[in-house]
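---------- Forwarded message ----------

FYI, see the Polysaccharide deacetylase family protein record below. Original note from H. follows.
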Amino acid sequence: MSTLKKLGYPENTKLLIIHADDAGLSHAENQATIQALQEGSVNSTSIMVPCPWFGEMADFAAKHEQYDYGIHLTLTCEWKHYKWGPILSKTEVPGLLDENGYLHNNRENFKNNTSSEEIKKELQAQIERALQSGLKPTHLDSHMYTLGLKPEFIKIYKELGAAYKLPILLSKQLIEFLGLDPNLYISNDDFCVDNVFLGNYADFEKGQLEAYYERVLDNLPTGLNIVLIHTAFDVPEMQGIAIDHPNFGAEWRQIDYDFFTSQKCQSKIENNGIKLITWREIRDILYPEG
């Protein structure tokens, strides 16, 4: 059964989630994401529980339940100087740690050093911490899509979604990008996003990131689509975090914020017959019993 049929929409429907990753990363990230939810076309975000600014975003979410909040399951820490560790004690999940006691800074080190048991324990702790904060999550997704790196990681991802009755961001495109054959790990019964759109560094380098987003909206296919963005203000705090990391860095995140809070973006959504849908709506369809 197609994704649209599962959601009860006609086959010619263009559904779109405009999703801002990495809430909780920093104050600049939180403030831009909040404003993008309140004033822009962004209609979904997800929060990184282990990050230093989780509390600020969780507090906002608890007081503004009308917005769409996922848990951005976090098992890596990619920045040069800005670091965090796991929720659990370091003796409980030693394989998740680098030589300095922080989460690994790239997918390969994470993939080669951790165990499924540690991953599941840590992710359950992150979800429970989010629930204890008052967050009412709409879905689960994966930071840097680390849960798509191995079949056993995908299994954990699915198990967590089923256990907490939350849809997960499952995507054949993202699994394929990480080197696995998605057809071996995704069945017809799994709920999948049909198309994932993510800005690329070549367009950013040429100053054409906004033009890329315009093309996506002008040519959006039918089915369930998601545009993954990262909204933050290009201020000293975010510049310091993203030093030596222009890919999804401070300037990039400001561009994402500027475009997806613009009238141009809103007009393109309307003129192209796009229907915005949230993970909250999807959750309530897939898990009507709550």
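H. also flagged this: Residues 62 and 134 are 5 Å apart (CA to CA).
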